[in-house]
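quick q for whoever's on today - can somebody do inverse folding on this one?? i tried earlier but teh output was garbage lol. tokens:
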């Protein structure tokens, strides 16, 4: 699943950048979150609480920086309009639906054994809904011949992700402090 989510992060981020779709870049943040979660979880298996909290801080900081980049780019393009390629947005959005569906299918046989896996399954269902929103935004861009559906959905989705990521960072810093030294030293 790390490979699927990592590749999809790169695909959506690159397609969004090349073809002018900010909603693809915003959707890529979900794949980055998933890839970092799985990779860092594997990296810190058996590590101390302090190391696991530091990994959570690292993940949250990387997500915050990426969110700020996507958000600032989207806001900039509200003033310097760029027309995204709706057909690329739609195709990549559908590909993202397939990727998240594949991850969900990989988890499904294990959901009865572990609460974390059940939670991941719910997360993938939410991500699929986000991917469908990308496809709908692509249709709106094409139908209206306007970049506004792309920009507005990107700003809303990235703003929400940024808010959630700030909460993750606060929790990770609290865990880090509770486990020993402050990360601010």
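ok took a stab at it. sequence:
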């Amino acid at each position: 699943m790390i490979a699927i989510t990592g590749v999809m992060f790169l695909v959506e981020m690159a397609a969004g950048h090349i073809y002018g779709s900010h909603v693809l870049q915003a959707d890529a943040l979900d794949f980055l979150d998933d890839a970092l979660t799985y990779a860092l979880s594997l990296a810190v298996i058996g590590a101390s609480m302090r190391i696991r909290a530091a990994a959570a801080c690292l993940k949250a900081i990387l997500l915050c920086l990426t969110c700020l980049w996507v958000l600032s780019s989207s806001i900039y393009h509200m003033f310097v309009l760029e027309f995204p390629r709706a057909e690329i947005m739609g195709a990549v959005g559908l590909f993202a639906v397939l990727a998240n569906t594949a991850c969900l299918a990989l988890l499904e046989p294990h959901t009865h054994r572990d609460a974390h896996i059940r939670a991941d399954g719910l997360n993938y269902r939410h991500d699929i809904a986000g991917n469908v929103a990308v496809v709908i935004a692509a249709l709106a861009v094409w139908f209206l011949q306007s970049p506004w559906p792309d920009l507005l959905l990107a700003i809303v989705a990235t703003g929400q992700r940024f808010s959630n990521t700030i909460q993750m960072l606060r929790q990770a810093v609290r865990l880090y402090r509770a486990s020993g030294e402050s990360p601010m030293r």
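fwiw DSSP finds six helices and no strands in the chain. also Residues 19 and 153 are 16 Å apart (CA to CA). so keep that in mind when u check it
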